[in-house]
Amino acid sequence: MPAYVIVDIVVNDPVRYEEYKSLAAPTVAAYGGKYVVRGSPVHVLEGDWLPKRLVILEFESIEQAKKWWASPEYRDAKKIRHETAATNMIVVEGI
């Protein structure tokens, strides 16, 4: 079943965050993932959750998404993300 990594990001250093984006994208592709949403404007329909930047990635399975997240290829990008942004990230199984 497909899996979706959902990321709520507050970017604190936009200049260095661009470096993260350029490093992260090839690692997503290398693990069979693809961007479904990448920073598009968010429109609240209900509640008070208002992500500053929302990213959704699709992988073939939760296991594959976890392999990407823990991969050596993603390690350097992840470090930059941790230094440049505050992030909440989950993975959920699709239907």
Q: Could you provide a short overview of the structure?
A:
The chain has helices at 14-30, 62-69, 72-84, and strands at 3-11, 34-38, 53-59, 85-93.
Description:
The structure is a single chain. The chain has 95 residues and is of the alpha+beta class. It has one domain (3-93): Alpha-Beta Plaits (2-Layer Sandwich). 40% of the residues lie in helices and 32% in strands. It has a four-stranded antiparallel β-sheet with strand order 2-3-1-4. The radius of gyration is 13 Å and the shape is globular. The protein starts with a strand and ends with a strand. The model has no long low-confidence stretch (mean pLDDT 97).
Strand and helix layout:
Elements: E1 3-11, H1 14-30, E2 34-38, E3 53-59, H2 62-69, H3 72-84, E4 85-93
Antiparallel strand pairs: 1-3, 1-4, 2-3
Helix pairs in contact: 1-3
Mean pLDDT equals 97
Write out the strand line-up for the largest beta sheet, numbering strands in chain order. Answer: 2-3-1-4
Shape: globular
Whole-Å distance between the termini? 6 Å
Q: Calculate Rg over CA atoms.
A: 13 Å
Q: Which structural class matches the secondary elements?
A: alpha+beta
Strand content: 25-35%
Helix content: 40-55%
- Low-pLDDT segments, ≥5 res: none
Number of helices: 3
How many E strands? 4
Give the oligomeric state of the chains in this entry, treating copies of one chain as homo and distinct chains as hetero: single chain
Topology order in helix (H) and strand (E) letters: EHEEHHE
For the largest beta-sheet, the strand count, sense and barrel status come to:
4 strands, antiparallel
State the CATH topology: Alpha-Beta Plaits
CATH architecture: 2-Layer Sandwich
* Name of the level-1 CATH class: Alpha Beta
